Model the fold of this input.
Amino acid sequence: MKKITIRVTDEMNDKLLDESKKLNISKNAYINILLTKRKVNIFDGKKDIFLELNRIGNNLNQLTKLANSHIINVVDLKDVKSELKNIWQFLNVLK
Done:
């Protein structure tokens, strides 16, 4: 068995202590459980997310220009809101 040393914030240390107390185990045991049992997601789709966010930003800029030029009066942003919600949900899955 090897010993390693890590630095954590006070808040993270408190969280580790609280969670380990809830399980009635030591902080070391809790960290070992996290390291060995937790599923790690490796995601390589950042380019797709940034591309989609750029497209949404471009669409918003175009709509803003049209509204400022008084070419359009009402903007329906349901689709934009839906796409942003999808991206947000996807990013939350990666946590």
User: Anything to note?
Assistant: The chain is about 65% helix and 0% strand. The mean pLDDT is 82. Residues 46-93 form one domain.
